[in-house]
Amino acid sequence: MEKLNLAVMGGTPYMKRLAGYIGSHAPEYVEVIQGTDGGKFLELMQGVQPDILLYDFRKGQKEPDVSAQTLKIHLSDGRPMAGTEKSGKNSAVIFRYQNGEAILREIFKLYRKFSDREFFSVTSPGSIRVTAVCASGGYEMQILFSMAYAAFLAKNYKVLFLNLAEFSGMDMLLEDASEESFSDCIYGIRQKRTQFSLLLQSALHHTDAFDYLKPPQNPQDLYEMEGADIQRFFEFLEKETDYQAVVCNCGAWNPLSARIFRRSLHILCPVRDNLLGKCRKEEFMRYLEKRKEEELQKKIRYVSLPAGVTGYTKGPEIISWFYHCGFSEIIKDLLRETEGWNDTGDGGRQAADFRQNGYDARDQR
User: What does the alpha-carbon distance between residue 196 and residue 343 come to, in Å, rounded to a whole number?
Assistant: First the structure.
């Protein structure tokens, strides 16, 4: 597997924390090297020039001397310079006062512009398990249910959560104000059908359980995506990443949702256990029967969720709430039925440990 060497130069606690974050959240083809300031660090690399050098340059310090094939990224105190060229074709600037996730996305954006190299996260292509979640007629608990399902699934698989619902509330729920979204991936694929892994990383967001792509800011993008866009996205995802499962939170029934449903192993439909909920379910079932969608009907599982689920608050900490929320036992039963799932009880991001120990959840089916 070809490696991308990313050197983080700086001995401050901030740079050490940033190097640690990048090391734990970047794909496995990224080799993170962290060291102190100046020439001693470059000497420790024993003549190996990094592909990317991320450094914290202070007044009076000598700027690092590296090859023209190395992208130098300076962490700046001034936002106006963020993401712009500093001096020369191999120098750029990123605003330092933002979280590690945002800095990591910026790094991949800049390197994709700087280099034409390709990187792959898998040694052999695999088949990704796709689960779609859609509440016919809409249901405010759908986003919570689909995120909780992804969190539990992430105990045995490396999961990508794809939010394709209009105004789902997920951004506000996770207090995520960043703009990068699924649209960036689709438009990038249309413009340049290479470097998919770098493209994905420049739009990717992270939680303690799963990675996710945000829905387009303009819902019109969802309706204008073509079948070829989705097909290429999943082809790249299978060939160039190590994700084992994708959970798609779909919005209303539209051409995009229909394409996702046809790729899915399972379609989970949360419903309200009341008169209106039953009426909506009946209308949806009649529509599928009228369209003779026998294959989709076989995939669908209607899930009755308890009313009045409470106890959650805004912020990333909601991930831990999912493991003991009001519908956690329902999700466990679903996973036991559909995945032969075994609850290890420890939650969180385990994909790296599985790979290191030679474990593949797909072998457990």
Answer: 33
Residue 343 · residue 332 · CB < 8 Å: yes
Q: What is the pLDDT of residues 318-356, one digit of tens each?
A: 999 999 888 899 999 999 888 777 665 444 444 333 333
Intervals of the chain under pLDDT 70: 1, 36-48, 57-64, 78-88, 119-126, 136-138, 192-194, 342-365
Q: What is the per-residue pLDDT for 321?
A: 92
Q: What is the 3-state secondary structure (H, E, C) of the chain?
A: CCCEEEEEECCCHHHHHHHHHHHHHCCCCEEEEEECCCHHHHHHCCCCCCCEEEECCCCCCCCCCCCCCCEEEEEECCHHHCCCECCCCCEEEEECCCCHHHHHHHHHHHHHHHCCCCCCCCCCCCCCEEEEECCCCCCCCHHHHHHHHHHHHCCCCCEEEEEECCCCCHHHHHCCCCCCCHHHHHHHHHHCCCCHHHHHHCCCEECCCCEEECCCCCCHHHHHCCHHHHHHHHHHHHHHCCCCEEEEEECCCCHHHHHHHHHCCEEEEEECCCHHHHHHHHHHHHHHHHCCCHHHHHHEEEEECCCCCCCCCCCCCHHHHHCCCCCHHHHHHHHHHHHCCCCCCCCCCCHHHHHHCCCCHHHHC
CA 200 to chain CA centroid, Å, is 8
At 241-267, the pLDDT tens digits run 889 999 999 977 778 888 888 889 999
pTM tops 0.85, yes or no: no
Q: Which residue has the tokens 């619902």?
A: 165
CA distance 57 to 12: 11
